[in-house]
Amino acid sequence: MGQDDLPSLLLLPFPPNPLTRPALDAAYKPSLTHALEKLKRSGGTRLVVGVVCPILHGQFLESKTLSWPEAQALLAGMYSLISLVCDQLSIGTEMDGGPGSVDTTVVLIDHDRNKRFPPNFRPAIETNNTIIVDMATFASAYFPWNSIFQVRSELGFQLHRTYLELAEGKQTLRQSQLVLIDGGLTLHIAQADQSLPTQTPTYPVVCLGGTFDYLHPGHKLLLTAGALLLQVPPRGEAAKPCRYIIGITGDEMLRNKKYAEYIQPWETRARNVMFFLAQLLRLSSRGWKDGTRPQIEEKDGNFTATFRDRTIEVQCVRIQDAFGPTITVEEIDALVVSKETRSGGQAVNEKRAERGWRALAVYEVDVLDAKEAPDEPVETEDFASKISSTAIRQQRAQSKMETKV
Fold first, then answer.
1. Domains observed in the chain
2. b (16+ CB within 10 A) / e for 88-103
3. Taking every pair of C-alpha atoms in the chain, what is the biggest distance, in angstroms?
4. Per UniProt, what is one GO molecular function of this protein (predicted)?
5. 277: burial class by Cβ within 10 Å (0-12, 13-18, 19+)?
6. pLDDT digit string (tens) for 145-202?
7. Of 216, 281, 303, 401, which is most buried by a Cβ count within 10 Å?
8. Which of 301, 309, 319, 264 has its CA nearest to residue 285?
């Protein structure tokens, strides 16, 4: 893998509290804008945004927990902000979008700002029962980088120094690869209720569905939010791997979609789902030196890949109806839906009840809002305010027509 093919890294320190869209914009928009501007000018095509925060709870590594509503809200805010900045800079957001696009992935990194590593500390890959990694594991498994963007603030400098100490020996960095960028204003307001948020159960088998055409920030939010619900077994045990079943709409069901001639084939859409999830799930002491894309097994027209010493199995299943594997795989525990498909969760559980199966736990992710942040947070189901596959296909159709003129 050549230097130009590597992703760049932007480490963002500690989100605002309370987490509102205006506060998130104030904290992160300057840094995201500067990093994406520089990548656009240099021809960079991939960016990993590491958001560092003490998001996991629990004393022991094997029993870490998180608040799923809190985590998915942070992810939704980040991908909304990324979509907004990219729109303002005329940067495409889809995976493999070609020139003028930056494929951006948000990774949550568990780290407490007060944590200090002893001088003789030797970082290694340490997994817990969630997909979120700590700072030492991130430094041990995510490398090498094209550029590393450093936020110009006290917390940014502290975070950057900690990361470089943990990543020492993983990559030889030239001074030109360390890029200083502006930071925003992060507010932390003491809350009257200091109790921990309710912790969310995790599940051995999680399912979601979609078309995943031209994989974009809305898809990334949905896929990441679903992965956060996985109950990852400890390595070395004889336990079955947790399973992440992703139903991807078959080509036949999409023939009547707008600009259907520009829809990507099922195989392309399924591979892109796998390639994206690999950035969240694959941990190797060699980083990306062995390549960034997973080995995919094709069986009966579906795709399967395993991660983290076979403790996580991802299945991309071809679906030809509205229910997919939710009514053919009894052992599924949880279903992740978006606001526009919330009625589907109820319909699925009604079908499962007819079979005498247990109901699925249904989790709903937020809708991306790529508008400027309002003074007060609002919910919207206006598709025009979201990055969508239809909009991307429309842009491609218009570009083709302009080329012919």
1. 3-188+196-365 (3.40.50.620)
2. eeebbbbbbbeeebbb
3. 65
4. dephospho-CoA kinase activity
5. buried
6. 999 999 999 999 999 999 999 999 999 999 999 999 999 988 777 665 666 678 999 9
7. 216
8. 309
